[in-house]
Amino acid sequence: MKTRERLLWLTITVLASTIIGLIGGILSHATAHVLADAITAGAAAFAGAEAIFLAILMFALSADRDR
């Protein structure tokens, strides 16, 4: 896989994680939590989603090398 393709997939994972983090923060704030709690919940959702996406991406890239 070329460097441009890897950067594209990395950008897609960061964008998806950002959307998940925003949704998590908005839902947390909508349930009458303090803004700081909503920011923390959004950051935790972003970090968790990005970790999962990067693990999947690394698995896919290592499978590509085995061929």
Q: Explain this structure to me?
A:
It is a single chain. This protein has 2 helices and no strands. By secondary structure, the chain is mostly helical. The chain has one domain. Helix 1 packs antiparallel against helix 2. It is elongated and about 50 Å long. The termini are close together.
How is the secondary structure organized here?
Blueprint: H1 3-30, H2 35-66
Helix pairs in contact: 1-2
Transmembrane segments: 7-27, 39-61
Keywords: Membrane, Transmembrane, Transmembrane helix
**Low-confidence segments:** none
In total, how many beta strands? 0
Q: H/E series, N to C? A: HH
Helix content: over 70%
The overall pLDDT average reads 90
Radius of gyration: 15 Å
Structural class: mainly alpha
Residue fraction in strands:
under 5%
Q: Outline, from the CA principal axes?
A: elongated
- Biggest sheet overview: none
Distance between the termini: 12 Å
By DSSP (H or I, 4+ residues per run), the number of helices equals 2
